[in-house]
Amino acid sequence: MSLINFVLTIMGYTLIGIGAFCQVVAGIGMNRFPNFFVRLHAATIAAIGGSFTPIIGCSLLALSFEELGTIRFFLAGGGFVTAAFLLVLAPVGSHLLAKAAYFSKATVLQPKVVDVLEEDMRRGEVHE
Amino acid sequence: MNELYELTPYLVLAISALASTVAVYLAIIEKDLIKAVLYSAIQSTFYALIFYLLMVPDIVLVYIPVSVGLLPAIIIVTIKKTERYEDVAGIPKSSSITILSLVVAFTFIAGYLLVLSHAITLDVFPSADARALAKWFLNTTLWWNRMFSAMSPEAVTAIVWDYRGLDTYFETSVMYLAIIGALALARYFEIPKKEYREEVMGMSIIGKTATRIVVPMILVVAISIALHGHLTPGGGFQGGVTAAVTVSLLIFIFSTYFAIRFFKINTAILLRIAGLIGIALSAVITAIIAFSTGQQAYIFQNQPKVIAQLGLPYEVGGNLISGTLFLFNVFEFLAVFMGFAILFLLLSIPEEIIREVIRGEME
């Protein structure tokens, strides 16, 4: 195993480990957080930390796995594209969810510390 | 004793068919709708048994939860929200006799067809060594002898288009008719002409920007799914549906008025018709070539067969295209994409406009 492959393997395993940790943290957060918006925060941890990171890790692992031949580049490329999609779409999805939930008043806002959006709306800077 | 053992499935089949007929009759004449639902569930149970005996376990697995569990549950919820009993007059006696005679007639016809199939194949139940058939199909999917192969490594596409293309052909026709139906229902509705304004309409700027980035990517993925249909899992239908996601994204994230800049309903209908004509032509293209050169060919033929020596080229410049499979995928992609685009656009017409049109018709 060459040095580059060794480094790639170590990085891949580390990223997958970080992903697993993030999934556990997100699961705990989903169960323990009090309302929709903070739970959404836990869900984004699962999406970015728990999905994006391990997919990158898997791609690196695939790159380092020479037994696959040239197929490993296709595998890694597919993984990177999927990760890029996730990186763009997961935050947008949670943003739209949060916005819809906030403006439709379908969720309970309590407990809250600060609500900047409400202040802006009162001042008339933001409209629904 | 052994003969009786062999007869058992036939007997169970006959008895459950009869019992399901009785259950249907009871379900139709029953005034208490909850009981009628129960009768219909009993009929479904018998049908599941029949399907099991006819060796289609996959259909049984879908049929039991849907028709015994889900459907009665939905109907019972509906009944709970409306009325439990049919109106007092109910079905008049003469029409109930008509229904009974219709049911009996259908049973006889079905029984006759069953006997006929028994006479033709000498066996109602499919043979137990169906695995051999599957092996044969898989072995001839990609085998570099063109006489016995569809020349495509993708088993499903190869089997669908080269061995039983009729199935997909009629599937396409069903979807064609469904969209024609939707168009006929919406023949007086028009998407109102309104200027799309970026600041007021649609979701937030974050969503819009992300959609602008993602929509071309989805289209690329969809086209690649469709064009690789003969190489990898996927194909025209799947690619078309994936591409249709872009239309719904444009409608939901931006606005209908933004979406109709790119997808006019009439243009979509035209493109869809072009796709359907392409499918029909691909089905008969080998036959057309054969007739014009005085040879023999089958409809839906792709590669040469033993008594029909004509076949489409399976590669172009070293790239595998599997003859008609590539054409089918391209045209199916077009037809399905545009079909769903039409549906999404029709569904996005505001309710008030539809109400207005209906009210105008009533007066």
Tags for this model:
heterodimer; A: 128 residues; mainly alpha; B: mainly alpha; 13 helices; 71% helix; 1% strand; flat
Task: Explain how this protein is built.
The complex is a heterodimer of chains A (128) and B (363). Chain A contains four helices and no strands. Chain A is mostly helical and 128 residues long. Chain A has one domain (3-123). In chain A, helix 1 runs antiparallel to helix 2 (36-64) and helix 2 (36-64) packs antiparallel against helix 3 (71-104). The longest helix of chain A has 34 residues, at 71-104. Chain A is elongated. By secondary structure, chain B is mostly helical. Chain B folds into two domains: 2-121; 146-362, no CATH class. Chain B is built from 13 helices and two strands. In chain B, strand 1 (315-316) and strand 2 form a beta hairpin. Chain B starts with a helix and ends with a helix. Chain A: One of its GO terms (molecular function) is sodium:proton antiporter activity. Chain A: The chain crosses the membrane at residues 6-28, 40-65, 71-90. Chain A: InterPro entries: PhaG_MnhG_YufB (IPR005133). Chain A: Keywords: Membrane, Transmembrane, Transmembrane helix. Chain A: This is Cation:proton antiporter.
In short:
Chain A: It holds the Pfam family PhaG_MnhG_YufB. Chain A is mainly alpha-helical and 128 residues long.
Explain the layout of strands and helices:
The complex is a heterodimer of chains A (128) and B (363).
Chain A (H helix, E strand, L loop, with lengths): L2 H30 L3 H29 L6 H34 L11 H8 L5
Chain B lengths: L1 H28 L3 H21 L3 H25 L11 H29 L8 H10 L15 H9 L1 H21 L19 H23 L8 H19 L1 H7 L2 H29 L21 E2 L2 E2 L3 H24 L3 H12 L1
Antiparallel strand pairs in B: 1-2
Keywords (chain A): Membrane, Transmembrane, Transmembrane helix
Protein name (chain A): Cation:proton antiporter
Organism (chain A): Ignisphaera aggregans
Rg estimate of chain A, integer Å: 20 Å
Amount of beta strand of chain B: under 5%
Cα(first) to Cα(last) distance of chain B is 74 Å
Elements of chain A, N to C (H/E): HHHH
The percent range for helix content of chain A is over 70%
Q: How many beta strands in the DSSP annotation of chain A?
A: 0
Largest sheet of chain B: 2 strands, antiparallel
Helix content, binned percent of chain B: over 70%
Morphology call of chain B: flat
**Largest interface, C-beta closer than 8 angstroms, per-chain residues:** A-B, 8 and 8 residues
Helix/strand/pairing category of chain B: mainly alpha
The spatial strand order of the largest sheet of chain B comes to: 1-2
* The number of domains of chain B: 2
- The stretches of 5 or more residues of chain A where confidence is low (pLDDT under 50) are none
Q: State the helix count of chain B.
A: 13
How many helices of chain A in DSSP terms?
4
